[in-house]
Amino acid sequence: MRETAEQAELFTAKLLLKTVQTLPDAVLGLATGRTMEPVYRAFVELACLRSVNTTSLTTFNLDEYVGVNSEHPFSFRRYMDTHLFLPLGVNSAQSHIPDGGAHDLQSECAAYEQKIKEAGGIDLQLLGIGMNGHIGFNEPGAPFDSRTRVESLTPETQRDNTDPRHGSAPSHAITMGIGTILDARRCVLLATGSRKAKIVARAVEGPPCDSIPASALQRHPHCLVVLDADAAAELARARVVPAAKGQDSLLP
Ligand code: GLP
Hints:
Elements: H1 5-22, E1 27-30, H2 37-49, E2 58-61, E3 63-65, H3 76-88, E4 95-96, H4 105-118, E5 124-127, E6 149-152, H5 155-160, E7 172-175, H6 178-182, E8 186-191, H7 197-205, E9 223-227, H8 247-250
Parallel strand pairs: 1-2, 1-5, 2-4, 5-8, 8-9
Antiparallel strand pairs: 3-7, 6-7
Helix pairs in contact: 1-2, 2-3
Bound molecules: 2-amino-2-deoxy-6-O-phosphono-alpha-D-glucopyranose.
2-amino-2-deoxy-6-O-phosphono-alpha-D-glucopyranose binds at residues 31-35, 62-63, 128-130, 136-137, 157, 161.
């Protein structure tokens, strides 16, 4: 845990940077959401400062809304282009996002799983957490061995993802399954802010159960949970790692 959200975000950005520096052909699993915006901003800044080569990088995003093309205001492709891919110079052949506009959604999901396999699996999967404990768009009840598929979103998730400028979020999404996420070699979950404190405590310290999808990460052998003090407030056990000193020991 870091004291401030800014420190937690910077730590996560440095984790991404270190991964790409040590493994130039890394396969990164990426997440969207407000939590990730400052992380991508810091990552782009650091990568540019240190002239990190990203041409051999491959990325797979967790999810995309159904019925949404890259021009749509809710498009995660649009989000990723804005916050990461364009500033970093990652092209569309390197960066994979499920096609929410696909005619045959089942085939799109199967093809996405296949592409991850062909890329050799995911080295580092970045994750946020929804207010109901979802990871990707795996809503409560999603089996821990689920694969990439279409998920219907709860009214709570749709409400949380509503954009005042563009209205309510779509009702369905393609998401990597929990099993797909658990196959990643390392997972990093970032949560910041007091609104996430309750669900973080249930996911991290409660028993793993499918009503809290993020609790599945307790079964992952290499999962790091990065929090600020506000998001960690409801945890019985949390360790503050001073930003300057302890950081390197947690980096890969
Ligand atoms: C969306 C995404 C998740 C993300 C969650 C949290 O539902 N599908 O991957 O973790 O939002 O979003 P935020 O960071 O905006 O709280």
